[in-house]
Design brief:
With 226 residues, this protein is mostly helical. The protein is 66% helix and 0% strand. The model has no long low-confidence stretch (mean pLDDT 82).
Length: 226
Amino acid sequence: MRPPSARFERVRQAVDTKSPLADPLEHALYEYLTTRAPSDAGDAYDLFADSDNRAVLEAFLLAGGNAALIERVIGVKAAVTEAYRHLFFDESNFRNRLEIFRYVADFQGSPHAKEVLRTAVNSGLDYLLWAYGRGEVQIDARQVIRHTMAEAYYRGMAHRGNSVTSQVAKEAHKWWGSAVRNAELLEKIDPRAEKQAFEEIRIQLEKFDDTYKADEAPVDVTEILH
């Protein structure tokens, strides 16, 4: 896997050989590393150099956050985020999600930093907005129940391949009990999907109803054959 920070490695080599670079952001980083000339590239480098800050910013990027959202939530200027993405975190170098998982597993940083990245990849942007935002996420009760029901159900599947008397099987039974309770609760607060689907079909059919009332028929009712 080509590292997402490959451009930074090129800049670092250029610093060692004193060879300025043509790419504007790479050149700006070169100048920052050699003369400390301030720039968005320099600010991006400072974020990269701090593993905890680096983990949070990369978590937002991996979860699909754009530069404008990142600026609004954690205050990193959009131009700095774009410089960071270009120099230190080129996501196009990940050929698939397996390489993303490997990158997160191999991340060099504190346990907290690794946990932020792992949770962002597994749980998505909503988690980061909850963790770092200020009222950015509005939680719907039905969504909570659906997520916890699915989580409990799939954790219950962990018993497969284990003895029915194993501890794993016992824990799985508890998870499935939780899944069933959540399913029952969801049934109470949210109409069943098939009922909603039936109603939607009925509404659609009404749009194409070509039947007539007796007094609205295009021919006299006495002329209709029985």
